[in-house]
Specification:
The chain is α+β, with helices and mostly antiparallel strands. The protein has 15 helices and 22 strands. The chain is globular and about 70 Å long.
């Protein structure tokens, strides 16, 4: 498991707009109104839509196994298709219509959608999926797929033109969710390079031009299997700075700016005919810290409980989200299927927290917090978190690093807590991928058994019960300090519609984007 796995888990989405000091900052002045989602009117046919996303500069790639920035992922999702996708927190068919494991749990059979064509007019077949799985699992990849823990991807074979058989390495009771969470974009058989003049996909738009870190140009593919799009052309602008994305919309250079800051939203729409939009409560990003239980203090359950009880979540929410969020209950995955809604937000009890730290011999001991600005406000929240820990009696200090260093294993290993944001990705992805990193994992037998059951069982009732048990462990004694959930905000022209949030609102699906007027 690599740093890229962490970045793809959190959806990257680094926003680099300046964040004001937390001193004296609150939401008392109220928030500017937002519109949830996009207009419901049907988009008219034609036109060019320009959308600005956070990018990765020269590191952007047309290879869908490489990029992790929102601009990369927005591009991949309209040029290529996945086998399964997430919608409303659940796996739904895309290029595959079914994934079934045999009774002995020895193999998984993928049933593929018929009538799909590539942008060059050739038919989509099982050979393309077999090639994709072998390509994705190759050790030559920057980041081989975590599906290799469950399936022998390199041994995948075509049953016929519309079925693929993949041997299993361990029980997988809900393979569709595992495939959806892995985000494997299907590439054409024989593809080994991704030049701008040769890239072909099965998605609703085809690539016509690409310049890393600058822009991507796309044209509608009228042969798309799920109905052709509305806009004639889409232009994706790669703009790292959040304020620059806002300025692009304000100045008419773009129609949409993804992932704007809370400070910008609070100031209101910067022009007539523009809207500040939120993606809805079920798509909020959970902000928190993961305690590194390989270190002495976080390994003590009394220290973990003291931090859960002692932090001021309300102060963090008010200072960071500026009214666009709410306190959280130490669980990641809000909005995902099986998420446990009935776990309350812990009531603050600083007196008990201090007693627990004293009992653990932790009072006055060093406690290092590591942070990088993967989300607007993460660094500021870490500053306030450190102040609160000091107030409880810990000798807390802060290590700020760049987003290129944030999840480097050696740096994480030297810290007691690591800032961590996560959207509503599937619980299977949240729990299995985080467990693969020693510094993020929580080695607890009850948790491990519950997650193993949730992933392997074919019983819906048993799966729901297992995820309930896993989440109660994490809320009760786990190493997550998830303190708040913040809105994912964007700026758009009021007539822009068709923005569809699937995996993450930071890189929405644009296959039906267009203008109502």
């Amino acid at each position: 498991m690599t740093r890229r796995h962490v970045l793809s888990l959190i959806g990257l989405g680094a926003a680099t707009a300046a964040v004001p000091s937390l001193t004296g900052c609150s939401s008392d002045q109220g928030t500017a109104p937002t519109v949830t989602g996009a207009p419901t009117g049907t988009a008219r046919r034609g036109g060019t839509v320009r959308l600005a996303f956070a990018g990765a500069g020269a590191a952007e790639s047309l290879d869908p196994t490489v990029g992790t920035s929102p601009c990369d992922l927005a591009r991949y999702s309209v040029v290529f298709d996945t086998l399964f996708l997430f919608a409303d927190g659940e796996a739904e068919p895309a290029l595959a219509t079914a994934a079934e494991v045999d009774t002995r749990a020895k193999r998984c059979t993928l049933t593929l959608r018929q009538g799909v064509t590539w942008h060059d007019g050739t038919p989509f077949t099982a050979a393309d999926v077999v090639h994709t799985l072998k390509y994705r699992s190759s050790p030559d990849r920057v980041s081989p797929s975590e599906l290799s823990a469950y399936f022998d991807l390199a041994a995948a074979e075509a049953g016929d033109d519309h079925t693929v058989v993949v041997p299993t390495l361990r029980p997988a009771g809900d393979p569709a969710t595992l495939f959806a969470g892995a985000g494997i974009y299907v590439i054409k058989a024989g593809t080994s390079s991704f030049a701008a003049n040769s890239v072909t996909g099965t998605g609703p738009y085809r690539l016509t031009a690409f310049k890393a870190g600058v822009e991507t140009r796309l044209e509608r593919f009228d042969g798309y299997w799920d109905g052709s799009g509305h806009a004639d052309k889409i232009v994706l602008l790669s703009v790292d700075d959040a304020q620059a994305r806002v300025n692009a919309v304000r100045d008419g250079q773009a129609d949409y700016a993804s992932d704007i800051s809370f400070t910008t939203a609070k100031a209101g729409a910067p022009g007539t005919g523009l809207q500040i939009r939120d993606a809805g409560k079920n798509l909020r990003t959970t902000y928190g810290f993961v305690l590194n239980v390989t270190r002495p203090l976080p390994s003590d359950p009394r220290v973990r409980q003291a931090i859960k009880l002692g932090i001021d979540r309300k102060a963090l929410v008010e200072a960071v989200f500026l009214g666009y969020g709410e306190p959280a209950n130490d669980l990641f995955g809000a909005g995902a299927q099986y998420y446990l809604d009935d776990v309350p937000v812990p009531e603050r009890d600083t007196a008990r927290a201090k007693r627990l730290l004293k009992e653990a011999g932790a009072t006055g001991k060093p406690f290092v917090v590591r942070t990088a600005e993967y989300e607007t406000g993460l660094n500021s929240s870490a500053e306030l978190f450190v102040e609160q820990l000091r107030g409880l009696g810990l000798d807390a200090s802060l290590v700020k690093v760049s987003t290129t260093e944030g999840y480097e294993p050696s740096g994480m290993k030297a810290c007691d807590a690591i800032s961590f944001p996560l959207g509503p990705v599937s619980l299977a992805l949240t729990y299995t991928r985080s467990a693969a990193f020693e510094t993020l994992a929580f080695p607890d037998k009850e948790l491990t058994d519950a997650v193993a059951t949730a992933v392997s069982t074919t019983s819906e009732t048993a799966r729901a019960d297992a995820w309930t048990r896993a989440q109660r462990v994490m809320a009760d004694r786990g190493n997550w300090i998830a303190w708040g959930r913040g809105d994912v905000l964007s700026l758009a022209k009021a007539t822009l519609t068709g923005i569809e949030n699937r995996e993450s609102p930071k890189y929405p699906w644009l296959g039906k984007v267009g203008f109502t007027a």
